[in-house]
Amino acid sequence: NGVSQIWMGVESFYSYSIKKEDVNIPNLVQTLKEHGIEIQLSWIIGDDCQTPENIDRDVAQLVALGPCTTQLAVLSASPGTALYKRLKEEGRIRPFDPKEGHLLGNNMNALHFTHEERLKIVFDTYRQVYETHGPSMMRSLEVQLNGYRHCLNSKNPYLNGPKLEYFKKELRNTIPFTKMAAAFAPNEKVRNLMLDLEKEYVELL
To answer: Is the dihedral angle over the CA atoms 30, 32, 36, 41 positive or is it negative?
Structure first.
């Protein structure tokens, strides 16, 4: 259908289990990426289900998915929601401050983490994704290579025609940055990933 990017709210792997129980998230994300569809995953820290005992596993599951981009946020309770009503009754809503109305704002007290701890988890997670998979531009490049290969082998005239050309253009715009990404890679593993992307591009195109 011409879809190139999808935003998906994972939030926490320990929350909303009823909605997620029939969905294999790793398989879904991998299938989308194999078809050339870039994934942005959102994840929230501060839910009651997240504890010092499980937070490392929660983060590890997000990092393992290898999203092209991530939107990490501190849980916020908005007036009119069930969450706000419950936390208000529990005395966990902080005094209103318009300066806290953003993704890393502090308008509620989490059950298991201070706000400083929540912020540290957010920025440490961004760092982990980068140090595992490289820069977001290169993560997109990997998915674009998948898309080019998928369209090249497709019998669908739309996919092996206009969509193939779309991927070719995107790849040619991005591939020059692989050398820079390799030169400034945070570790040897990521450096090798960048060089492998360049090699794959040369072999395909």
So the answer is: negative
